[in-house]
Write a structure and sequence with these properties.
Glucose 1-dehydrogenase 2, alpha/beta, 8 helices, Rossmann fold, SDR_fam, 7 strands, globular, EC 1.1.1.47, 7-stranded parallel β-sheet
Amino acid sequence: MSFSIAGKTAIVTGAANGVGLAIGRHFLSMGANVVFADMNEEKLVAEVGADDSAEPKFITFSGDLREKLTIANLLSATLDHFDQVDILVNGSRQVLESDPFDPAADQVETLLQQNLMTSLRLTQAISKRMMKQAETAAEDAPAGSIVNLSSIAANRTQPELLAYSVSSAALNQMTRSMAVALAPHRIRVNAVAFGSVMSASLKDTLKDNEEYREDIKEHTPLHRIAGPSEVADAVQYLASDASSFVTGEVITVDGGRSLVDAARAPAH
């Protein structure tokens, strides 16, 4: 079975930095058409630029995807440029610390909206388009693949990450529920849950904190921090026909970190 995503059109959210940006760039290098979507227009343009060719392979889209109108505009922009959408990567996510004793600072509503509801609303909107496309395709042809970016925090008990853990766990359950709901329509829904990844933000954090770097490595059996491309490879597998009989799964990419005592090393 082929891992190829060449010629397919993918929407990648949270694509202005970190893992989302790495996935978008990786998909582009693999021959896919890519819509890089993010709330931060300035950073998105700075990182991605623009494809000014006669037949562009990628576009950028900026807007607040917590708003239903923005989601509709994202789908319209995608169809205007590429006529179809085959892959959705829900990578728009946020990490905030929680005070579990303070309702004003527990961040639960904020992160449920950002990390769960945005992905759910996008999944609902994009899957409807995938269903419509499937009406003119072969009866047994895959209709689409949706991949949610989650975290190993979903299965770890860290009160200071209460909201992030709860929203990640909810996203995993949404993945399973939507996988069953969309299976009759030949749309697969999976997730990739990862631990610490050497994104630009983590690099900044570690720059003056060698102790933290060693703490992460100490609690990771493979004794290193993942590169963004290692998450992107897992996402490509789930987006491609190589995983044609895989749905409702949460694949863990964390070097074994979730298998051992978490101690106090935060998950990112």
